[in-house]
Write a structure and sequence with these properties.
Blueprint: H1 10-30, H2 36-57, H3 72-79, E1 168-173, E2 176-180, H4 196-207, H5 213-222, H6 229-242, H7 244-255, E3 259-270, E4 278-288, E5 293-299, H8 305-310, E6 317-319
Parallel strand pairs: 3-6
Antiparallel strand pairs: 1-2, 3-4, 4-5
Helix pairs in contact: 1-2
């Protein structure tokens, strides 16, 4: 349909279209079979009716401005619409919308090659179990074998090292005898029930694996060995005293540098005199940057006694946070 002429009465055209559609619907109801031509005609008239509706109530670029004398109420009656559905549209703002067309290509994931089972280290002890078939294979030729390795574990074993020393009576003459018996091998702590292997394991469990002493004792309890807490504490104290020589060697090696870092940090310490109570102690930490060695020195306070004792005789550069306790160490241009 053309809408170039302003003298066309679209209201009249719209009414004619309504009448034509009503006639076509009556024909469809009267005839049981609807021909293809009639269907095409109904579709064409419906399309023209929709075009007229757009011209009257469409957007600004599609809307038809009726000729003078045609009111909005007349258009409403012609289109058989309710008054509340008619609204006047105005363009208040406009924005430009740009679209980017992308093409997505789906690449199927390639299955990763299975790395295979981890090879177990060669230094582990192998416990070999040979499994023979149930059939009689004595007259069959062996053509190969299949080896399956499983990583297994058995708990640590407590055992008793028993020394048996026979005693011999040796004559001395004149009717006198003496007893001959082998001496016990040297030990780290004499008259201690615990061997060096057990003491070393307990030290490693506590200070390397951070397993408290009472949990270690619970583990030994499950293995059928009861060790009193007070006894284990005595073992630890005596072992630490034996390790003092190693601490002194580590201290000399850490301080044998020309550049050292130092700092202190507070730590809660259990009070032996007051059960369940703690007091505030300090760890003084010294770091050899070149060899990456760390020296820990515990002190009950934060006074200058700690660094004065540890750093006595140190010649080099000392990096600190400016705490006043280190100022007494400055003795010349070679120390700072």
């Amino acid at each position: 349909m053309q809408s170039t002429s302003s003298n066309i009465d679209y209201k009249e055209l719209y009414e004619q279209q309504l009448i034509q559609i009503a006639d076509l619907n009556e024909q469809i109801e009267k005839h049981s079979s609807v021909t293809a031509e009639l269907r095409e005609e109904v579709a064409l008239v419906t399309f023209e009716l929709n075009q007229l509706r757009k011209m009257v109530f469409g957007s600004r670029r599609e809307r038809f401005i009726p000729a003078p004398g045609i009111t909005k109420a007349e258009l409403q009656l012609a289109l058989d619409l309710h008054a509340e559905t008619i609204a006047e549209c105005r363009i208040t703002s406009a924005s430009r919308v740009e679209y980017i067309r992308t093409r997505v290509e789906v690449i199927p994931n390639k299955p990763k090659a299975h790395p295979g089972r981890m090879k177990l280290p060669d230094h582990l002890r192998r416990e070999t179990v040979i499994l023979q078939p149930d059939q009689d294979v004595r007259r069959l030729n062996k053509i190969g074998e299949d080896v399956t390795e499983i990583l297994d574990y058995i708990p640590g074993e407590l055992y008793v090292r028993q020394y048996i020393r026979p005693k011999y009576a040796a004559p001395l003459g004149d009717g006198f005898t003496t007893v001959i018996m082998a001496s016990l091998p040297g030990r780290m702590m004499e008259k201690c029930m615990a061997g060096e292997g057990l003491l070393a394991q307990m030290i490693v469990d506590k200070y390397v694996d951070h397993l408290p002493i009472h949990r270690q004792l619970q583990r030994y309890e499950r293995m059928g060995v009861h060790i009193a807490q007070s006894t284990s504490n005595d073992w630890f104290r005596a072992t630490m005293n034996q390790l003092t020589c190693l601490y002194e060697a580590h201290k000399r090696q850490t301080l044998a540098t020309g550049y050292l870092g130092a700092d202190e940090t507070p730590i809660k310490v259990l009070d032996e005199d007051k059960k369940g109570k703690t007091h505030r102690g300090f760890y003084w930490v010294y770091y050899n940057i070149g060899q990456q060695l760390v020296l820990f020195d515990y002190r009950p306070g934060r006074g200058r006694e700690g660094p004065n004792d540890i750093l006595q005789g140190f010649q080099g550069y000392l990096q600190t946070d400016g705490y006043s306790a280190y100022e007494a160490l400055i003795k010349g241009p070679a120390s700072s």
